[in-house]
Here is the input.
Amino acid sequence: MMCIINVLLTLVAILPICIQANSGPPRITQQPKNQKVAEDETVSFFCKASGNPAPSFHWEKGNRKINPRRNRYIVEDSPHLTVLRIAPVKSKKDDAVFTCVADNGLGEARANATLEVFKKIGDTVGGNPWVVKYEDFPSGYPRIVVNPSLKSVEKGHNALMKCEVEGNPEPTVYWLKDFLPVDMSDPRITLLESGYLQIKMSQESDAGKYECVAENDVGVAYSYAAMLYVKVRRVPPHFSIAPEDTKVMPGADVNLTCVAVGSPMPFVKWRQAAKELTPEEDIPIGRNILQLENVRESKNYTCVASSDLGNIESVAKVIVEAPGSAPRNVRARAASSTTIVVSWNQPEIPNGAIQGYKVFYSLTPEKPIFFWDSQEVTNNNQVTTISNLKPNDTYTITVLAFSSIGQGPMSHPVQVLTTQGVPFQPLNLKADTISPNEIVVMWDAPQEEEKIESYQLYYNDSHMRQNIRISISPPDEKYKLIDLTPDTVYHIQVSAKSARGEGPKTPTVQAKTRPYIPEASPQAVSGRPLDAHQIAVNWKPPPPDKQNGRLEGYKLRYMKNIEGDIETDGVEKILDPNIESYTIKGLDTWTEYKIQVRAYTKVGEGPLSPPIIVKTDEDVPGEPRKVKIEVINSTAIYVEWRPPVNQNGIIRGYQVYYVEVNSDDEPISSSPYYDTYDGNKHEAVITGLNADTRIMVQVAAYTRKGDGIRSRSKLITTKGAVPTPPRNLHLDLIQEDPPRIKVTWQRPRDTHGNVENYKVIWGRSGERYEEKILPAEKYSFVTYSLDKGTKYEFRVLAKNDVDYGERAVATLGTPDGAPAGAPQNFTAIGLSETSVRLTCDLPFSF
Here is the structure.
């Protein structure tokens, strides 16, 4: 029996990775495995890494980043997992080391895996993949005997994907879905001992392309891909719970439940007559409970269930069994100091026959209604007299209607003063908001003939809690309150006053002023970089007295701090009012951003905060450009380059990597590097190389965040070996006037072939030099006349069949001589009675 590792565990189960709350560099948690595969077959490398923030991945082959858009390479990523798939594998190109690289901006983690490819050398029978000849092909290489086949399963049913394998040693088996490992942590999915993949209670997400993989010590084999389709049954909608008729008392709350099923599951909504009660953008599926509050009137409600297969409806009646509204136009007047006459009209929503009315009255309206006195009125009367009251007291009165089933709601209370001669209560008090700072108050005059001298208007607000009284004389039934606070609730009452005194106040009405735009910007705006691409911004709300209403939110604006850019070039984020911090993401590296915040209400936007300038952090730099290499001699090369386009910070220096490579351009030694330690230096001379050697060179810049991307590899071959410096270089002054110098030397220690000639170079240090070519058998040279008082440098080089070799260098100064002429441009300037300034130029020659 084959060996099945349910621990595809370490290889294929995509388990959640626990990320610590603290940020940290990435760490490889599952390294890619070394693989062996036959040419033209398929292979995959799996790599996992942890880190906070979560790392991103890329793959390299031989230190070069793999382009996932290339035909044979496919890279699939999921959280904390990356897969490199190569199909078909080629021996000349893919027999190499592959590297998984994880990077999260805080660091980098790398892991290597080797791919060994068995080279294809021909077929014994054309077209049969199992008789293909491979170089050094091992016995026991795994083989797929039974490939998985196309499956179609109904949703909720089980599916079985078959796969049988052979090999020695017995291969382990695991499965891929759409190139990624199958999630074996799902309890519905099981890998059987036979190698079959069992999926229970299939879901639509199980659909996809499946592959079986067999692996042992000598290689890996992939099955043909097979599609799994999951079908969904289609059933028209029908009600499993239809809404029912309901009887309620006025003011009650009702829940109407409607449940419908089908496949696909239907959307369920409510309608009352032609009015839609369920928002179109928020229609639930399968179940919808209609919540009715404070029901006053009998109505029919329709539940509608709909899907692609049709619509169905069911109607429920909500029956209110008592008057649905209060008596209208309740009026009260003092007939005497102990008697009040109360009148009213029938309710607007009687909901059937009204049997009578109840009139409630009290001197303490703050107490519950069952502590009030009451008086019942029947026989369809709509007026009553209340007697035996206390004189000179204010009574509060309310009326309700009742039927044989129950009582309706109470009317708005009215107040009346049991004092003869004082005005009645003003009627129909209303308050309308006309601006953020103004409310118009209107009312009707009391129903009496008593002369009213003035009205008394009382109001306070929910913000400042101030109680204010205004006397309106001459009397007018309209008044405008001004200089109010925006977005504030005001409580308003009015009373009438005559010569005999002030009458009762009206019931309190409330009015809320309109909001206004904030007068001030958010306070304490600050920002700091989190990394190369994120900035954290914090602020506090505007002062409460400057908000002018409830804040609807904040608008955060940011843009690059570039001279000439206008405000409309920025990006704006709309944030909730309870948010006082935000992280701006996706920013450019090492870039200044101008950031401002403003608050807004329903009316509009407040002023922007003063701008703050925040610069994102550095990152590793991009790839150096235009790298050029020149051979200097057999042991040295010259390298120059241009800075990266994306420097991503301050470049602290460059590192030049160089390594010897073979004829296949593969490294055959360690890779040392030369560091410039200077970000402004763009050239380097690499010495100490071997003669006639192929060298691969790459250049990388670095910031304080680390090494950047290496440049593309450049190849060059050093020259063959050249002679070492001539030995015992010696200079002798053989004549002083005019000076002449004799140069002598000996044959180089290592000539690396026959010496063809010698070159002697001489001249003033730092000036133009002269040179002389001498035959190989000559070891001395005498100069012609030289200048006096001058230091001369002499260089001697030997040449073989490759080139001139290393030089020997020596210096010697000639003796001084008398000037050949008089000083030029001599002048004398008197400075004082006792001093003179003398100036002159040197003679033309010495």
In short: Helices lie at 8-12, 91-94. Residues 1-21 have pLDDT under 50 and may be disordered. The two ends are 105 Å apart (CA to CA). The longest helix spans residues 8-12.
